[in-house]
Predict the 3D structure of the following.
Amino acid sequence: MTLLLYDDIYLKHDTAPYHPENYKRLECTIDHLKSAGLWNKLTLVSPRAATVEEIALVHDRGYISRARKVAEGGGGQLDPDTVLSRDSYQAAIYAAGALLTASDLVMGKKDTNAFCLVRPPGHHARPARGMGFCIFNNAAIAAQYLISRHKLERVLIVDWDCHHGNGTQEIFYNDPRVLYLSLHRWPFYPGTGGKDERGNGEGDGFTINIPIREGTSPEEYIQSFRNVMNGSASAFDPEFIIISAGFDTYAEDPIAGLGLSAKDFATLTKITMDVAKRCSQDRIVSCLEGGYSLQGLPLCIEQHLNALLEIT
Ligand SMILES: [Zn+2]
């Protein structure tokens, strides 16, 4: 069974129509999933909101209240790219909450995985700072929640967004309980994610960065992904896998791109599911990060969901 976590509040995070991270990304995706006949195959779940205590598992409390104040005061900017409107704080706590709802359900039920169709995205959000369209770090909050609430000891975050998830890396840089694995275009925004960034102290070796040069073929990209998933990621023996699923490596993405086709996301998903089957009792929660082609994003998500549902 594949759960789809979604709430209309995500459409109300208003970044302005010209902003690449806008509500049409979800609207176009839902329309497409309905017309492709996939919507009815998914089990729709309404997410709960994450509490301040849960968000504070990885974020500074002062930052959380500042984000709330800016939003509820009518909106503003957290950085030059990261815009808040009046409903953005609500959207952000329900985005983080979707991963917590999904994590509880996947922990409680066999043969169940989940995709969280959420915005704002999360992987650039740092402990005390929003950044790169991200307010709270949805994947990091969920990983820390699985450790503190479900007493897990090894959580793998697989980040295949085209950008490096600098926020997620920073949050777990010293922590051996979370293996953060990222493939990303490099050199590229946000500038972090070099091969030599491997974690620190007890966390040394628990950050794996695979920088990908522009012009790398999709075949080579997928082979690198397969190698690290079957190698270091499997050796970590994760109890749970969170996917930071960005779809901006898609060839036609307007702000990023690495030449991948929509079908390639089914392949990445299947490789991840094979590791989950071997190591983590099939436990996968995936969440939307980037992906800005309004035509391509729905096709990529369709392929990702087909694989999660095991219908391809
Ligand atoms: Zn991205």
